[in-house]
Design a protein that fits this description.
Layout: H1 2-10, H2 13-20, H3 24-38, E1 43-46, E2 49-52, H4 54-81, E3 86-92, H5 97-111, E4 115-121, H6 124-132, E5 138-143, E6 150-165, E7 183-187, H7 192-203, E8 209-214, H8 220-227, E9 231-234, H9 235-238, E10 246-250, E11 256-264, H10 271-288, E12 295-297
Parallel strand pairs: 3-4, 3-5, 7-8
Antiparallel strand pairs: 1-2, 5-11, 6-9, 6-10, 6-11, 6-12
Helix pairs in contact: 1-2, 5-10
Length: about 300
């Protein structure tokens, strides 16, 4: 097919042989074999060389279309293998959405404009399941991971900080026992953070009086204004945006957690996902490295 196209576009066997660096006899034999296979004359001699017959013209159009599509496919595969195109699905725990999402998307757009990014917000347990099911390529989650199929890399340690009404916040650091008599807002029982907070309160000698349970951090602001209660939140979610009328205070005996990247252990990230993973790590390290209280790089 390639020889046939070259002869047609060159207008003769001799010119085509020079372009292909092949012998003229070999080209003639290949075209003759193609004519026998298809049962039709494909070329006819004219004064200036050869030209396609009507049957040859139909075949030439098809050959051009096929070869052009193959070349385009090869370019697409090359771009995908090099991480210049494709897609990546990224998961973020809710407390980190405000901290990294915009910077991550801006950086991906600048470095890898051909990669389509999908960002999903969820709890660590949900994101882990999505990684294991190959619904996500990479996620920023709390560590350690509960699933052995998820490989991880620790990035930073994050303290839980107190969010309290400003008029009762006092100054400086707090101890958990100072919050024992306050009404509390906590995540639902299915959220791992709930157990971490309750265990810390029990070590401090009390059980928090929970007046409101929330599913996502986005619901906390309005609820806190309604009940004027207190809560512990991961520092990354509030150090830059405490609810109006509330203050963020470091708690001396509050627990901390490790946050890092997760991806499927048995399947290394494809080039687009590997690019997203690298950019996500870069953005997180830059954000945490800006001396934000309650956050420190591993």
């Amino acid at each position: 097919m390639r020889y046939f196209r070259a002869v047609c576009e060159a207008g003769g066997f001799a010119k085509a042989a020079a372009v292909l660096e092949a012998s003229q006899s070999n080209l003639s034999a290949q075209v003759a074999a193609l004519e026998r296979e298809l049962g039709a004359q494909l070329l006819r001699r004219v004064a200036h060389g050869v030209e396609p017959t009507p049957a040859g013209g139909v075949l030439l159009e098809s050959v051009r279309a096929i070869e052009d599509r193959l070349q385009a496919a090869a370019r697409d595969v090359e771009a995908l293998a090099a991480g210049r195109s494709g897609s990546a699905r990224v998961g973020l725990i809710g407390t980190l959405v405000a901290l990294v999402t915009r910077a991550f998307l801006d950086r991906m757009s600048a470095l890898h404009p051909g990669i389509a990014i999908t960002v999903t917000e969820g709890a660590t347990t949900t994101l882990e399941r999505d990684l294991a099911a190959a619904h996500l390529d990479v996620a920023l989650i709390n560590l350690p991971a509960s699933l052995r199929s998820v490989r991880t890399k620790a990035l930073f340690i994050e303290e839980l900080v107190a969010v309290v009404p400003a008029e009762r916040a006092g100054r400086g650091e707090l101890r958990l026992a100072e919050l024992a008599e306050r009404p509390w807002l906590l995540p639902g029982s299915e959220n791992a953070l709930r157990g971490v907070i309750e265990a810390a309160c029990e070590r401090a000698g009390f059980r928090p009086r929970v007046v409101y349970e929330y599913e996502t951090i986005r619901l906390v602001d309005e609820a806190m204004h309604a009940v004027r209660g207190v809560t512990l939140l991961p520092a990354a979610g509030v150090v830059d945006r405490a609810p109006e009328g509330f203050a963020v205070r470091r708690v001396v005996d509050a627990p901390s957690r490790v946050v890092g990247l997760g991806w499927l252990r048995e399947r290394p990230p494809a080039p687009p996902a590997a690019a997203a993973l690298a950019v996500l790590e870069e953005v997180v390290r830059r954000a945490v490295g800006q001396r934000r209280p309650g956050l420190r790089l591993v």
